[in-house]
Structure formats: structure tokens, C-alpha cells
Design a protein that fits this description.
The protein is α+β, with helices and mostly antiparallel strands and about 300 residues long. The protein is built from eleven helices and 15 strands. The chain has helices at about 5-20, 20-30, 35-45, 65-90, 105-110, 115-120, 135-140, 170-180, 230-235, 245-255, 285-295; strands at about 50-55, 60, 95-100, 125-130, 145-150, 155-165, 165-170, 195, 205-210, 215, 225, 240-245, 260, 265, 270-275. Strand 9 and strand 10 (about 215) form a beta hairpin. Helix 1 crosses helix 2, helix 1 (about 5-20) crosses helix 4 and helix 2 packs across helix 3 (about 35-45). The two termini are about 60 Å apart.
């Protein structure tokens, strides 16, 4: 006997017992009468016992048949209930959504957006995982993720939500003491603070409007795996660093930091909402992704144009 029960034959037998007829079961299940008969015979052979007596005029379950029919009917009901519940979850937002997001962006803009969504969808819960590491969505069991990068082609589906402007920033005190860099080559004489998760953390690549490219190897007293962790050192005058606008905007607006070398651009990046590719998503994931798209694609701070 195989390890798995013959669920199809059990379901067919339950319907035969319910209708007291092979033809009735066949009509109800949209199967041929021969298919129904073969399924019952297969089940009897598998179990080694007779489940019903049938003649041209009489249909009667054996003792084993009556016992099995009750259990099979219960099994079918539970299966139909489980299937209905799954279909309901697919159509109505309900259940857990697992989201991965970068630490700084997630703390500043994703986490504050969650109460509104959860209030509008009381049957949905969110598991928010914050890390600057690139998370394996499929391996980690995540439904979607925020990624801030220039995305390579992959099996993930992606929505581009907004561009991210990156500029070199430094404090007025640092610039007064060390001078203002005007060209990437000037950075060789400056204290550079670095972010560990840049695609090329050991080098910074710049390009100007004329298409000139300059690559420098930064050196300095601090390297961190979170860009926000560099802010205190930058404001304290310890160096210069490329920072994204969603981190530096307040310090620049309030005069603690200044943008420098603005005629040289770092490689463009954007905020993306990514999800595993494949079939249709549950309603809870679709509703959540649509909500994040609306919340994060528009302006997030005073003066944020959020232009694509």
C-alpha cells in the first residue's frame, strides 16, 4: 500500500454513498459512470474488502462501506472548507504580509505608513524586517521588499516608486577647515566616510554633464553598514560622504550639512517595490503593495518633488 491515501477515490466513493447511485455520483461530479465505477473498484482492491453490494435493482453498503463512507464524507467536507478558506483569503485581504526594507528608509517612511494600512485592513497583519542587506525573498519567505538600487534583471517583479538623489555632503565646519572639493580627484585629500553596502564600496564613481567619468578610492575613519550611522560623524565634521536625499534632507535644510561637488553625479538609483515572480498574489499582498506604491511614490518631506 502506498503511503498516501487515494483521496480521489475516497471522494468519489463518498458521493456514491450519498446519492446511493453510480450514475447520480457521476452526474454530480461531472464524471463518466465508468470512471466512478473504476474508482470504487480501485478503492476496494486497495483496502482488500467489499464496500457495497450492487445489482441491477439493489444498492447496499457493507459494514466497512458505511464506516468508510462517513469518514470519507467528513474528509471531503473538511477539504472543501479548506479550499473555500484559501479562496476567500485570495479574494479578500486577510492574513500575514512579510515585508523586508532597508533600515533607514524603513524606519523613516515605511513604518510610519503602516498604521493607516492596518487600520483599513483589520484582518491583515504585517511582519516588517529591517536590514540593509539584500534579502532573498523566496528563501526568506517574504512577500515583497523595498530595494534602493539600480536593479539588475532578475526573476523578481519590480515597481519603480521614486528616484533617489545622492550627493556628497559635509558639515560647514569641515568644509571651512579642509576646503570644498570641486573635482573627484580632490577627494584623495579628504576624509571620506563610507557605506558598506554600496555595490562598489571600495570605489566611488562619478560622472559629469559632459560624460566624463572619475573613479576614486575613498579612505577615512569610519565605515558603516547603515547610511544613517554616518550622519553623526558628518555633522561632527569628521569627513565627507555620499548620502541619499531621504537621509540628508533635514540636516541640509537646517544647516548642519551642505551638498558639495553637485556638478558630479553618482550612479542613479531608485526606490523599488519588488516581489517574487510567478502566479497571482493573495489579496492581502496586492492591497499592501498598492498601498505602499501610493504612499511612497509621492513627496515624503518638505520640498521633495519625487520626480521620476
Amino acid at each position: 500500500m502506498s503511503k498516501l491515501p487515494d483521496l480521489e477515490a475516497l471522494a468519489i466513493f463518498a458521493k456514491v454513498a450519498e446519492t446511493q447511485s453510480f450514475s447520480g455520483a457521476a452526474d454530480h461530479l461531472a464524471l463518466s459512470k465508468a470512471t466512478v465505477s473504476k474508482a470504487v473498484t480501485r478503492l476496494e482492491q486497495r483496502l482488500g474488502t467489499t464496500l457495497l453490494h450492487r445489482t441491477s435493482r439493489r444498492f447496499a453498503l457493507t459494514d466497512a462501506g458505511r464506516t468508510l463512507a462517513a469518514r470519507a464524507a467528513q474528509m471531503v467536507a473538511e477539504a472543501e472548507g479548506a479550499e473555500g478558506e484559501a479562496m476567500d483569503m485570495a479574494l479578500r485581504p486577510r492574513g500575514l504580509v512579510r515585508l523586508a526594507a532597508p533600515m533607514s528608509f524603513g524606519m523613516a517612511y515605511v513604518a510610519p505608513a503602516l498604521p493607516e494600512f492596518l487600520g483599513a485592513h483589520p484582518d491583515v497583519s504585517v511582519d516588517l524586517h529591517l536590514s540593509d542587506e539584500v534579502i532573498d525573498l523566496v528563501g526568506g519567505g517574504f512577500d515583497c521588499a523595498i530595494r534602493i538600487a539600480a536593479l539588475d534583471d532578475s526573476s523578481l517583479t519590480a515597481r519603480r516608486l521614486r528616484p533617489v538623489q545622492r550627493h556628497l555632503v559635509a558639515s560647514p565646519g569641515y568644509l571651512a577647515q579642509r576646503g570644498r572639493p570641486m573635482h573627484p580627484e580632490d577627494l584623495a585629500r579628504h576624509s571620506c566616510l563610507t557605506y558598506a553596502y554600496l555595490p562598489t564600496a571600495q570605489t566611488w564613481r562619478f560622472v559629469n554633464a559632459a560624460g566624463e567619468v572619475a573613479i576614486v578610492r575613498p579612505h577615512g575613519p569610519l565605515r558603516a553598514n547603515n547610511a544613517d550611522a554616518l550622519t553623526a560623524a558628518l555633522c561632527a565634521g569628521l569627513g565627507v560622504a555620499p548620502q541619499p536625499d531621504f537621509i540628508y534632507w533635514r540636516d541640509v535644510a537646517e544647516g548642519r550639512l551642505e551638498t558639495v561637488m553637485t556638478d558630479w553625479a553618482l550612479p542613479p538609483i531608485s526606490v523599488h517595490l519588488v516581489a517574487p515572480g510567478g502566479g497571482p498574489r493573495p489579496a492581502r499582498v496586492t492591497a499592501f503593495m498598492d498601498y505602499l506604491t501610493r504612499k511612497l511614490a509621492g513627496p515624503l518631506w518638505p520640498g521633495d518633488a519625487a520626480k521620476s
